[in-house]
């Protein structure tokens, strides 16, 4: 099979550790399925600030643009938290999304049966929960003009939230497409009773909906959605929403599964290119101790196989291996009930590779 | 004692029913404590659209401005959902907040022991949860310029989020003051890693914090807060945040208590004037059936007594009466485990009055 290029961005904190295990899994699929991957490392985030003076060096961007997919660990940490805007890891994140045209962030919130007890929700409420949040990623208030000015009452700050029809159309179409491959239910989340961008959003959703007569559509106000996720998580299939609302709701959805150390995400643009990363952060407090959980990053490889390469069989092998290792009772510290029996990052990676 | 003027806005859906019971409680305190209340009804929301052609008639505004406090039921319903902006109940809500200068929305999220099982959270997680969300109510993206325009890629919509220093200062001071009367912990929620308004917000919080050396302050990013509310609700005391974030987080916080039919809220400005209302909506689906739960509105009267009139003893009597009636096992349909034993709105109101 043809050689696939993967840009590997380990990043900060536990990023390098968890990416290391994911790369072992990747290698194993070469052996099992005859795939060929060419991986190249890029600097990004805090470490890029330290070594190159910018969170997103041009060479990293070029590396990503020349690749078929990007595997990202995690970025950020207290070391860079008080930097000026241009020298913050988050600025790199926003930059890479925009530069690579990654307008869509896909966040599956799946419940791992064997981790159900880790959720703060009652098991009977969580039962059957399996949803995906599709978040618009390159528009809205994140990317609109921001500035300070002198107002009538002293200094003021301004953020601007802008959406055009085309930006809404492409993300909404993608969400409908995803819903068609799943439960055929789509919840579009907005604040159309207050915001003009939300009214535009809802108009576009309603205009596109007839193209997908099989998909059952509901409009949910964002405040109500924050409640309904808690009240009836299993009733959601696909949720589509704008950037800021998606940031908040996807984190809420991830947390309620109880499996946040296990969740992966994909950021997609036009075509098959994608950036894949765990939902969890760089966890600077436990970095370097070899105790972090590599599963979300390993599952990000499976997601990459499905969404970018169409390697569904191999993806299934990875997902099954993870499940088997968990079912056999192996746990890293973050998900262990009995912390004294917790295994390390490398041991978890080895077990999963062995189970493939 | 002097006569207190209360503007009563029953509104739509179950609004009139639940307000009716709250007024019985109010009357009872006249009898028990010798208070004198002068109540006058105003049209607002959907019913005002139908009868006066606007959600917020000038005479209602004048009535409120001439009163010491406002008691509001609920507004809105599907009947008006597709109206143009000027003819929507929500527009009236935003208008009344702005016109009355109600810059602060106080939403206690309390867990009623006897209703703990109604929450979807595990009881041991909920244990000890007792928090207040202080939401900025007259600024931010709700009130900034909104418009459509032709952009390079076709039609686009714009919302503007603006905060000035003074707007942030007054709400943050109030939140610190409230924290001083409670657990002395304040979580300030923003998205300072992305938004300019959030950076201004955080600067102001940090500038004011030294005035309250006893209050333990934490800054929490909004996405993280949506997670932490689920993970460790009992660790929060007072949460202060801007308008849009407050809308989402206060609803999430309310829902996780399992007691949403029981929660009241206050909207305050400078001075002692306030508008009091239940957190729940107008529930058009059950309106007119006499089965709605009046407790949140009754507790809104208690909140009015505490925050506007300083009638703490009477407030306690109301709150205790509610507790006693619940402890005796009486439930309206929304909170009844055995729905066949549910009592009606009026019966619940009568029981609470009798228990006072
Ligand atoms: C770090 C931050 C800019 C980022 C976001 O808000 O998009 C993060 O929270 C995420 O969800 O990926
Ligand atoms: C109806 C709507 C405009 C309102 C808001 O978002 O402020 C409501 O959700 C609330 O929280 O009071």
Automatic annotation (TrEMBL), chains A, B:
Cofactor(s) demanded: Mg(2+); Mn(2+)
One Pfam family of this chain: Iso_dh
Annotated positions for site Important for catalysis: 142, 191
Recorded GO MF terms: 3-isopropylmalate dehydrogenase activity; magnesium ion binding; NAD binding
Ranges of residues in domain Isopropylmalate dehydrogenase-like: 5-352
Enzyme class: oxidoreductase
Binding residue positions for Mg(2+): 223, 247, 251
Listed name of the protein: 3-isopropylmalate dehydrogenase
Organism classification: Bacteria, Bacillati, Bacillota, Bacilli, Bacillales
Species this protein is from: Paenibacillus radicis
Family per similarity comment: Belongs to the isocitrate and isopropylmalate dehydrogenases family. LeuB type 1 subfamily.
Gene name in the database record: leuB
Location(s) in or outside the cell: Cytoplasm
Coiled coil: none
